[in-house]
Amino acid sequence: MHIDPETFPAPTGREEAWRFTPVPTVLTALTGDAGKVVVEATTVPGVTVTTVDRDDSRFGSVLTPADYVTATAMAKFQHGTTVTVSRGASSPEPTVITVRGEGGTSFGHLLVDVEEDAEAIVVLDHSGAANFFANAEYRVGAHSSLTVVSLQDWDDGAVHVGSHAVSVGRDARFKSFAVSLGGSIVRLSTTVEYAAPGGEVELFGLFFADAGQHLEHRLLVNHQAPHCRSRVNYKGALQGEGAHTVWVGDVVIGPKAVGTDTYEVNRNLVLTDGARADSVPNLEILTGEIVGAGHASATGRFDDLQLFYLMARGIPADEARRLVVRGFFAEIIEQITVPELRERLLAAVDAELETSMP
After folding, report:
1. CA distances from 317 to 80, 308, 323, 328 (A)
2. pTM above 0.70?
């Protein structure tokens, strides 16, 4: 569904959905000189990856643009990537889509279609230099399971803005990991819809912002079908002057969504002065016949008592800091079933601490 961007006003930063975002920088990047990204794929049996033109009728079947930037990205991409998981297919190995920026402003689109009774893992690995505006659609068929790891490991100065839309079928499962480490500005918005009863969704996030970085994650889990479950767990660390993270978690339980079971949590660890974490959980309940619903949010400074405890037992200060931060993120990282990714994330966290921690 390609909607004219002019249908929406350009954001100014005064809108609720954009009030935390560096809007002038985003809009400048959106209209920058044309750039290039290189997209490559590594597949597994039962999974087909193709590059198709923008007029493919499948694009827009899950995602409907809701703002100017999303609509612009959808209007300007020329070629998109489709990932089709055949019915009954199953593999413990991931399909890996690498997106490497080579400068300038680029637009992209991804559609992952998991047919019935199938299981798949898809890894999106973003790196390089780019202003990248790209949307993604995920359709999970009945009795199927999809795990997505989206890794934002851009070079300094990159801008990445994207909207991800998920449709979860009957008794289907969707699990995602949004990992933001690199780039100047990263803003990802994820919307989940349940197409039928019995769906289960787990959304995990890990982000580590350094001086001057803006990392923003927005979620909307829309429970309109009965007897569905959702869990959200995002964790972030910040260090350095001007480091800024934003997490906005919205959960809506509609009047027909009886038997809903949902909980969302965000935890932020502020390691130095001059960093700012904004955390906004929201919960709207329109029926009383639910299993449970709740949310939690906490932002705190590095615990000097923990550091003292470890140093008193002979552990050097740098290693003690590393252990504390690793422990903070362990709950998220240990959920990833791809060993190479777990090791890469632990190494990335260590590298962040080595380069920036005082």
Report:
1. 48, 9, 10, 17
2. yes
Closest residue by Cα to residue 273 from 313, 301, 315, 252 = 301
Element spanning 265, H or E = strand 261-270
H helix runs in the chain, sequence order: 23-30, 68-76, 304-311, 317-333, 339-356
Q: What values do phi and psi take at 318, rounded to 5?
A: -60, -45
CA–centroid distance for 272 within its chain:
25
How far apart are the C-alpha atoms of 310 and 316, rounded to whole Å? Answer: 8
Task: Give the residue from 329, 358, 112, 172 showing the smallest Cα distance to 346.
Answer: 329
For 315-341, the pLDDT digits (tens) are 887 777 788 888 889 999 999 999 999
DSSP-assigned letter for residue 194: E
CA dist., res. 204 & res. 149, Å (int): 9
**Contact of 4 with 72, CB cutoff 8 Å:** no
Determine phi and psi for 88, rounding to 5 degrees. Answer: 85, -5
| Bridge partners of residue 298, in order along the sequence | 267
Buried b (16+ CB within 10 A) or exposed e, 322-333: bebbeebbeebb
pLDDT digits (tens, 9 = 90+) for 228-255: 999 999 999 999 999 999 999 999 999 9
- Tens-place pLDDT, residues 55-98: 999 999 999 999 999 999 999 999 999 999 999 999 999 999 99
Q: Distance between CA atoms of 303 and 270, rounded to whole angstroms?
A: 10
Paired sense of beta strands 79-85 and 145-154, if any: unpaired
Pairing state of beta strands 185-194 and 47-53?
unpaired
| Cα 76 versus chain centre, distance | 22
Kindly give, in sequence order, each residue whose CB lies less than 8 Å from that of residue 266, ignoring residues fewer than 6 positions away: 232, 233, 234, 235, 236, 247, 249, 279, 281, 296, 297, 298
**Cα–Cα distance, 318 to 306 (Å, whole number):** 13
Q: Where are the alpha helices (DSSP H) in 87-213?
A: none
